[in-house]
Write a structure and sequence with these properties.
The chain is mainly beta. The protein is built from 1 helix and 10 strands.
Length: 167
């Protein structure tokens, strides 16, 4: 009788877990950000990895460019990569807070040879804003203030708007 009761409890536990999993929130977002931390526009992927009640924490990775050719007219794009950890508070209307780094790989002229030379720099940033995102997935948008501290010295004001999809 004990083993039967244990099997029933295991079965009920599995069934209740299956119901929780079927109602799980969508954890991935793909969005286009305009005028954000990566310059004029960037494509971004974000993955939520922790959720505790109304707080969701995720990581963001993006890519952007604004010059495809260098000063010699050769294909040598400037590359900007935003990386950040974001926290959302809310249900479908969320307060968004984030901290991150922007990696920039820009092509400049070498001061002695005048040949193209890539300079890689890291710039910290933070984000505060509003995000509309349903836990069930679908359309999402966000608007934020996201200043960058260029070269750890210059404070640059940036703000962005994003539109995308959560799945």
């Amino acid at each position: 009788m004990k083993s039967f009761l244990i099997l029933v409890l295991i079965f009920l536990s599995a069934v209740s877990q299956a119901k929780v999993d079927s109602l799980s929130t969508k954890k991935n977002s793909f969005y286009l950000e305009l005028l954000g931390i990566a310059g004029y526009a960037s494509l971004n992927f974000e993955r939520e990895f922790i959720q505790i009640k109304k707080v969701k924490i995720g990581a963001r990775l993006g890519i952007s460019t604004y010059n495809f050719t260098d000063f010699t007219a050769q294909f040598n794009p400037d590359i900007i990569i935003p990386l950040s950890i974001n926290a959302l508070y809310g249900n479908k209307h969320n307060l968004e807070l984030g901290l991150g780094q922007v990696i920039s790989a820009l092509v400049k002229a070498n001061s002695t040879t005048f040949s193209p030379e890539r300079s890689i720099n890291i710039h910290p940033n933070f984000t505060i804003g509003y995000r509309y995102q349903k836990s069930s997935g679908g359309f999402m948008y966000r608007i934020n203030y996201s200043p960058i501290i260029e070269f750890y010295k210059e404070y640059k004001h940036w703000g962005g708007i994003s539109i995308g999809y959560t799945f």
